[in-house]
Amino acid sequence: MNTLRSRRFIIMGLLPAMLIYALFVFVPVIWSAYYGFFNWSGIGASSFIGLDNYVEIVHDPIFWRALKNNFIFVGAAVLGQVPLALILAILLSKNNFLQRFLRSAIFLPMVLSTVVIGMIWQYIYHPQIGILNFFLDTLGLESWKLQWLSDGKIAIFALIPPLIWSFVGLYLIIFMSALQNIPGEIHDAAQLDGATGLRKLASISLPMIWGTVQVALVLCISGSLKSFDLVYIMTKGGPAHATELLATYMYNSTFTSYRYGFGSAISTTIVLISLILIGSSQWITSRKPKQ
Amino acid sequence: MKKFTKAALAAAVSVFMLVGCSNQEAANNEGSTGEKVTLTVWHNWTGQDAKSVTMRKLLADFQTAHPEVTLEDEGLPTDGLKTRLRTVAAADEMPDLFVMWPDAMTKEFQKGDLLQPINEFLDSKPEWRDNFIPNALDGYTIDDNIYSVPMNLAPTSFIFYNKLLFDQYKVAIPKTWDELMTAIDTFNKNDIIPIALGNKTNWVAQSTIFSTLADRVTGSDWFLKAVNQDGAKFTDPEFVKALTVLQDLGKAKAFQDGFNGIDETQMMQLYFQGKSAMVIDGGWALANLVSNAPKEVLDNTHITIIPSITGGKGDAGSTAGVVGTGLGISKKLTGAKKDAAMELLYALSGPDGQQATLDSSTLISYNLELDPSKANPLFVELHELMKNVKISPVYDAKLSSAAVEVTNNGLQELLMGGKPEDIAKKIQDAQAKALGK
Amino acid sequence: MNIMRTKKGLFWTLLTGYGIFTLYPFFWLVISAFKTNEDFYSHPFGLPEIWHFDNFSRAWESSKLGTAFMNSMIVSVGSLMITLFIAALASFVLARFQFRLKGWIMTFFVVGMLIPIHSTLVPLFILMKQMSMLNTYWALIFPYTAFALPTAIFVLTAYLSTIPKEIEEAAFIDGTGLWGLFRRIILPISTPALSTVTILSFLHSWNDFSFALVLINKTKLKTLPLGIANFADGYQTDYGLTLAAMTISVIPTILIYLIFQDQVMKGMTAGAVKG
């Protein structure tokens, strides 16, 4: 192959994506990181304070609470969403009516606005007129009734089902497209074995789409670390910071407490933590033997 | 930050050339060569409620009366407007006029040198200036410069109660704290929620309940001293007592279970469904009640203030409140554009604007008579009540933004069983830090 | 055998139950869109007492949703087109060529997925102002594209890496150049992954509120999420109108999903790539 031509092709191929991305994502990210070294309310004069914002973050108990909550989310997403989506993708691979219906139904929460999803789940968890407590009542399980969103100890866990439920469709569709690449013969052969073949199918399919699983993990970790919308709508990070996340903590500092510099430092911290987590997840998953 | 901006600009321009966009927008900013001027106005009057409709009509009327001015008005939901204003303020790109909140926001914008004082214009119309209620302009005044005037009045704490339920269980409308406790007890025994509360958006308890309750205990003077950290601290026994009173209210089961998990809408919903006997909310709840409550609830709803507290230092006849939003005017305006902006300010917040606002069942910070035949009976009742009620400060209007965050979260914690002393200390620390003391 | 069949039946019944449960919010959205506020407050779960079909027409007219709908279409489709083309090109390079800085470029793209977008609002606003792009469609098209790129590139690169090399070699023997290879072989072969990217990117820009709030301040350029938010004025939300507007806005995303989900599945029914 003509190396000169292919080098030119590499540059021409990467250039548009890199330029647009660098200008509209990377520049603002660096810019915001730069504000993190200032004591700035977002308006008027600012003063350079070096790493003081970061020192304050490390000493702020709310930051550690938020970080812990974020780790709970990452754990739930990595162990809940990804495997669930993978299993569903393998099970729902046929194009008959039922499976098409199920695929669409599972994807549907992705399409709906977070506001609607938040509203629905608030009514599910509502302490007086909520559906969940009503069911527990009818089943005679009164003692299981809880103050789902207002008890500081359980609120963060009560947020996990809506979170998994609304994003599982995202990973489902990513896995569906990856599975299309598996040659039909392998598929047909595995299919013949029927229900017990499920495990076999997984052991054949999984290595073949391992790259996509890694991508899903990256998406999943980054998504959980910056998750904001649903929690902001459902609990606002409360009660008393019980469901505070790094992103809600950042948003409140920036837009509610008028501390723009501090907020920027938090968001830079989020990026750094995510990079470490993703780096280690890549390191772990890339050591798995590929077949 | 200049150097960085330049580097980014250089990068930006080079790509900009590549994609080739048009550059007509920039030329738009000049003006005032002829008589024609364009004014941009950002507001939060987007709804279909009476007040929003009235304000939009005032804008439209101004446009008709002033053909030489082109109004470019844009409505945004309240939270969106606040976020947008913060962003453009960071870039020094304020619109010509915008809805602005008193106290904290006005101070921030003034500190950033973004606002234009209106003293001169205000002084040219003394009959207008002097007709505002006492202290109405304080939240917009910094060092004798006045930056806006309020277009409405927002008392933040009233008890809206369902008379039918009070009569049914033979409960007296509480005038003292003991009577309130008796009422709570009776309603709880009969499976009625005494007071519906939705404190998920955590300013609700602070603004609608605690600000008045604490004022009853500590008195306004103590509070204002503590705000300035001048001779009083939030760790003082009075404040701890105020926190304890609120906590005891929670312990007496005054509020329904799970109140920290539901929002204001769901709180009103409990009241509308007749599940609760009372709800404590600001004057703004009235419009919601009038248009959305079922008829039997609305007809039996009356309004009172939070009862007196024995041994309290505060005025038992006051309720917490803030003057409403005003129009901020950008520092950059000059000449004909500035004159037009002042005219618009007068059209919306001058005597005629205030009258129109009052007629849309909204309380105002301006002395005007209400025509009872035009308004909903409940609004007439509220307006009458306000004649005998003094306004005391609201916590979130006076404290620094950082201390407000701490207070709001602290009250949630308090109602979940946190220790009043610890919470008082956190609030004290946050306020002291914000003032640099 | 019988036990297994019952087990299988039970399993699919449960899964169908889950599917129906998942559909409920959509159902709730649609029926609530026909209610008055009073009805919404008193019976949040019930069917409307009276079906207010006029909620839809009132929502459409009172907030100029028609214009907002068109604006949303323009920016969403615009950024989608750019995203698809440049992401496919970059992914082709990243998946198929060996060069020194590859690992770094992938890392570079990861960073963008990690940042909470709210912290970029102020820098982006200043940037757009200096480029005189504020209040143009480009102010939204470029950020939407830029923020959709990392996911798109990741999904596409992972997909392309699994395609057997023989396909390209065959094309080279035919004398096809790199551009030809990209257009005639790579693009068609990536249909499932491109469809996934289409669905995700479209959803992302169609539902965005934050960028649209800050970067656009001309009423005639407003997008749908802003138009919908106008029904809520802080203290008083008109639920009938809000939910009617949301129902209208969800239709295009459902259509996009239904159309492209078939494309996602195309590879399989066509017997996929012969290995």
UniProtKB/TrEMBL annotation, chain A:
SUPFAM superfamilies: MetI-like
An annotated GO BP: transmembrane transport
Domain ABC transmembrane type-1: 67-281
Principal place of residence: membrane
Entry-linked Pfam families: BPD_transp_1
GO cellular component, one term: plasma membrane
UniProt topology in membrane: Multi-pass membrane protein
Cross-referenced InterPro entries: ABC_transporter_permease (IPR051393), MetI-like (IPR000515), MetI-like_sf (IPR035906)
Keyword Membrane listed: yes
Transmembrane segments: 9-31, 71-93, 105-124, 154-180, 201-225, 260-280
Top-level taxon of origin: Bacteria
Keywords annotated in UniProt: Cell membrane, Membrane, Transmembrane, Transmembrane helix, Transport
PANTHER family: ABC TRANSPORTER PERMEASE PROTEIN (PTHR30193), INNER MEMBRANE ABC TRANSPORTER PERMEASE PROTEIN YCJO (PTHR30193:SF37)
Family indicated by similarity: Belongs to the binding-protein-dependent transport system permease family.
Name of the protein in question: ABC transporter permease subunit
Organism: Paenibacillus monticola
Automatic annotation (TrEMBL), chain B:
Name this polypeptide is given: Extracellular solute-binding protein
Keyword set includes Transferase: no
Transmembrane intervals: none
Signal sequence, start to end: 1-26
InterPro entries named among the record's database cross-references: Bact_solute-bd_prot1, SBP
Species of the source: Paenibacillus monticola
Pfam family, one: SBP_bac_1
Keyword field: Cell membrane, Lipoprotein, Membrane, Palmitate, Signal
PANTHER family, sorted: ARABINOSE-BINDING PROTEIN-RELATED, POLYGALACTURONAN_RHAMNOGALACTURONAN-BINDING PROTEIN YTCQ
Domain of life: Bacteria
TrEMBL record, chain C:
SUPFAM superfamilies assigned to the protein according to its UniProt record, in alphabetical order: MetI-like
Subcellular location: Cell membrane
GO biological process, one term: transmembrane transport
Keywords: Cell membrane, Membrane, Transmembrane, Transmembrane helix, Transport
GO CC terms: plasma membrane
Coiled coil: none
Pfam families reported for this sequence: BPD_transp_1
TM annotation in the entry: 12-34, 73-97, 104-126, 138-160, 181-203, 239-260
PROSITE patterns with a match to the protein in the record: ABC_TM1
Superkingdom, taxonomy of origin: Bacteria
Membrane topology, record value: Multi-pass membrane protein
Similarity comment text for this entry: Belongs to the binding-protein-dependent transport system permease family.
Protein name per its UniProtKB record: ABC transporter permease subunit
Species for this entry: Paenibacillus monticola
